[in-house]
Amino acid sequence: MGGISGKRIYLSPPHLGGEEIEYVKEAFDTNWVAPLGPHVEAFERECALHSDRSSALALSSGTAAAALCALLAGIKSGDIVFCSSMTFVASLAPFVQSGAIPILIDSEPESWNMSPPALEEAFKDAEKSGHMPKAVVMVNLYGQPCDMGRILPLCERYGTPAIEDAAESVGSNYRGHPSGSFGKFSFYSFNGNKIITTSGGGMLLSDDAEAIERARFLSAQARDPAPWYQHSELGYNFRMSNVLAGIGRAQLKLLPRRVETRRAIFMKYYEAFSDTPGIFFMPEPEWSRTNRWLTVITVDPEKTGVSNFDIMKALGAANVESRPVWKPMHLQPAFAGAKYYGHEGRDVSEELFAKGLCLPSGSNMTDDDISFVIGAIRDILP
Ligand SMILES: *Cc1c(COP(=O)(O)O)cnc(C)c1O
After folding, report:
1. CA of 92 to the centre of ligand 1 (A)
2. How far is the CA of 325 from the centre of ligand 1 (A)?
3. 76 Cα–ligand 1 center, Å
4. pTM for the full model?
């Protein structure tokens, strides 16, 4: 049993609108099921338009896009990369796989994203040591844009390109500018759990058309313009298939509605628990509008009487999926020993990790589903 009708309530399942099948059918009818094709080109144009970018490259995943960012940024063995610590591993892993040494930056309490003072401290130390970073990976956590107005000027001052990991923030904006429009490069994910999906996929974005053409070449096996298969360098097989791009085109049209639905789900949780002592909601600073990809709370067991994990366990018993927030990268065994900068004498990401919980936020949740989850949480509160 679980949910009101006995079905499991997932954290963030795919939500199809119905029109996807028309695009897929078109791909089948025209025999464009192989990689590339007209849907891919159209989806790239539509994503470039959506993100206010001149150029876009459709890929098999957000992780593939991050890997191409590492190549375009020229990351080589021993180069330093600054990255938000509070994120999913794929923000950072491709850079480290390219040989980068990660330096991890704590969150600030205002947005839970990269702390500008911690970033500044890291830059100052890098300057002193004469070992400047090759890139700064800034992440828009759970849909919430980071503080671009403070982070980008720092990157500019120190001459380091910024990369915007907008995997979770498709449809969000910072001061009216869409997520994905910031930094030298940015990328989206269309993984199955994201706000819109192609089942699996990603999009690399930039205003540097030449760099995107370079990425296009690398993402399709780096084939020389010769009559035979000739390779002067080695590439990848990272492109998105035409079938999946068709799904993406239909999903992108639904994005504004999906954002409103996720924000409405957040409001329902907020109305239910904002008065509960010890429960706090992920903030939305006035300079941004988040897509509320996931509704995230923190739980202070001393005030609430139960912990985040108690709630997660109770929800699990009611057949409702919830998840801890991302474990910070500076606490990951894979990055043991990596340098890390806390936020003004605090470790905000560790505080969030200790208390955070992601609640079911799928745009296809019914009102009954949401009420069921709220009821299940109320049941375990003392
Ligand atoms: C999902 C995600 C990615 C990776 O995207 P995939 O399409 O799953 O490869 C990267 N960064 C963040 C922050 C993500 O949430």
Report:
1. 10
2. 14
3. 22
4. 0.97
Ligand 1 pocket, residue 168 CB under 6 Å? yes
Q: Length of the chain in residues, anyone?
A: 382
pLDDT tens readout for residues 113-134: 999 999 999 999 999 999 999 9
Please give the pLDDT value at position 1.
Answer: 42
Query: Burial level of 300, CB count in 10 A (0-12/13-18/19+)?
Result: middle
**Rg of the chain over all Cα atoms, to the nearest angstrom:** 21
Cα of 67 to ligand 1 centre, how many Å?
A: 11
Distances, alpha carbon 9 to alpha carbons 200, 214, 216, 238, 365, in Å: 21, 42, 39, 32, 8
Q: What is the pLDDT of residues 205-220, one digit of tens each?
A: 999 999 999 999 999 9
Q: Which amino acid is at 168?
A: E
d(CA 163, CA 136): 6
Indicate if ligand 1 lies below 6 Å from the C-beta of 191. yes
Structural domains in the chain plus CATH codes = 20-253 (3.40.640.10), 255-380 (3.90.1150.10)
Q: Is 178 in the pocket of ligand 1 (CB under 6 A)?
A: no
Cα 263 to middle of ligand 1, angstroms: 21
Cβ neighbors of 122 (< 8 A, separation 6 or more) are 82, 103, 105, 133, 339, 341
144-195 pLDDT, tens digit per residue, is: 999 999 999 999 999 999 999 999 999 999 999 999 999 999 999 999 999 9
Q: Does 164 contact ligand 1 (Cβ within 6 A)?
A: no
